Amino acid sequence: MHSVKMLAGATFATAILCSPSAWSAAPVVYSGSGANATTALDAFRAAIGGAKNTGAPETSGRREISWDGVKLDGTDANPNTQVVDSGHTVIIPVDRFRGQGALFEDPYAVSGDGFASVNPATAGQFPAFSPNNTFVMQDDTPYQFDDRFIGQSFTIPGTATTAGTRGFGAIFVDVEKAGSSIEYFGHDSSGHEVSLGTFNVPTGASGEPQFLGVLFDQPVVTDVKLAVGTNTLFNFDGTHFQSFGGENLPGSTDLAVTDDFVYAEPTMAAAIPEPSSYALMLAGLSLLGLIAYRKKPAFNQL
Ligand SMILES: [Ca+2]
Ligand SMILES: [Ca+2]
Q: Which domain, by its residues, includes 58?
């Protein structure tokens, strides 16, 4: 199991579920590539229900991050943004989207040119799903390109108070080989982190978008960890960047980026059951998940 770093000083609020029956419903998986990515994303939005929220905390609806409002020339709202290549690629601080209830595990990169400025060998390979900006991890160690994970935890929007969401989904771009995924984490009533499962991003043709989202029936998801491709596009030591170079398909490397993140409004997190009941729950979820897959083959994929 991958661990997700908890932020120092963050408070963790949980509501203990009163009855295991609250877990009778399986999480529903929405996924698709190409035109089906849009279909799956729209279905995920509809299943969350309510409005797209942008301001103060709400009790329903969803949040979305398109990255398109991030300025790329050093004038972005948060003064801790680092410019990698002015006008093209910046690295945003972990709290850049705290207003939307998102806190990142590390500083990650936003680009308006599909990261061509920091990895010219991939120019044109990652068309934005929502133009122009896309999002991906970077490795902060020179000569290292193996940190392929984006970690995000949820907060009550505008605060540092840890929260839970019923579901999270993301657009990926150019996933052509199995290996990209999203792992979901929750906490039990003792505050221990537990994996709620790893779900695979579907593969598609070169340049296609993919969507993967998983919706639970309680706000149990406190963290997500996205595995994006097999390697990092570039690294940045604070002064200089190095490019990983092109991908090698059908060989061992598949490079990819992400675009729109969509998640249910973060609220006070619901605790997951203790381990014994959790194992029973997972067994039930596997069975119910398969049933859900058969019902919705167009965009459900476990
Ligand atoms: Ca975008
Ligand atoms: Ca690729």
A: 53-274
268 CA to middle of ligand 2, Å?
37
pTM for the model: 0.85
Residue-wise pLDDT tens digits, 30-44: 999 999 999 999 999
- Ligand nearest the Cα of residue 68 is 1
Ligand nearest to the CA of 261: 1
What confidence tens digit (pLDDT) does each residue in 127-152 have? 999 999 999 999 989 999 999 999 99
How far does residue 208's CA lie from ligand 1's centre (Å)? 14
CATH code for position 113: 2.60.120
* DSSP H or E stretch at residue 29: strand 28-33
In a domain, 31, yes or no: no
The closest ligand to the CA of 111 turns out to be 1
Task: State how many domains the chain has.
Answer: 1
